[in-house]
Amino acid sequence: MAKEHVSLDELQRALREHGIGSTKDVALAVLEVDGSISCLKYDEIKPDASTHLVRRKFLQKHQ
User: How far apart are CA 22 and CA 15, in angstroms?
Assistant: First the structure.
């Protein structure tokens, strides 16, 4: 998301719109072509190792 210039505040707002209270609950967040952010919680999918790596890198840049 940082590469696409999406701030942590914008991501957190999108999470709240999806009823998600914390980035810790998110397995995957996707910036869609229309500019919206789609979010999947851990209990909705079983993320693979690459998902964890992407999430960890994003959080490291924005903490």
Answer: 7
The pTM (predicted TM-score) of the whole model is 0.59
Closest to 36 (Cα-Cα) out of 48, 18, 21: 18
Domain total of the chain: 1
CATH of the domain at 23: 3.30.240.20
Per the structure, the complete domain to which residue 54 belongs is given by 2-61
Contact 24, 51 (CB under 8 A): no
Nearest to 36 by CA among 20, 13, 52: 13
Indicate if the pLDDT at residue 12 is higher than 70.
Answer: yes
The residue among 60, 3, 59, 62 whose CA lies nearest residue 28 is 59
